[in-house]
Design brief:
It is a multi-pass membrane protein. Belongs to the copper transporter (Ctr) (TC 1.A.56) family. SLC31A subfamily. GO terms for molecular function: copper ion transmembrane transporter activity. Its main location: membrane. It contains 4 helices and no strands. It is an all-alpha fold and 107 residues long. The chain has one domain (7-44, 57-106). The radius of gyration is 20 Å and the shape is elongated.
Length: 107
């Protein structure tokens, strides 16, 4: 039905926009993780803080890395969902995915 097709196009458009937003969120988390890394990148410094060093940034990089990992999983799932929708070979769905990706990148 025309209403079902319009709803499908809007859903794919929103999923594409969400995909782009998550991609940008991953970039922001990467920047924060790099800023939270300690100056010394030895394994001992990353795992165990030095005695008397109660820096709040110690270990924060790991939380950012976990956030990036979760964002990556969501991005992959959304990417495959949009890909499968586009592979329905429906021109309107394809245009919805392109429009959503464009709007998501623009915003």
């Amino acid at each position: 039905s025309p209403a079902g097709m319009a709803l499908s196009v809007v859903v794919i458009l929103l999923l594409s926009m969400l995909y782009e937003a998550i991609k940008m969120g991953k970039a922001v988390l990467l920047r924060r993780a790099l800023l939270a890394l300690p100056r010394s990148l030895s394994q001992e410094t990353l795992v165990e803080p030095e005695e008397g060093d109660a820096s709040p940034t110690q270990g924060r990089w790991f939380r950012y890395h976990i956030g990036q990992t979760l964002f990556h999983v969501v991005q992959v799932v959304l990417g495959y969902m949009v890909m499968l929708a586009v592979m329905s070979y429906n021109a309107w769905i394809f245009l919805g995915a392109i429009a959503g990706s464009t709007l998501g990148y623009f915003v």
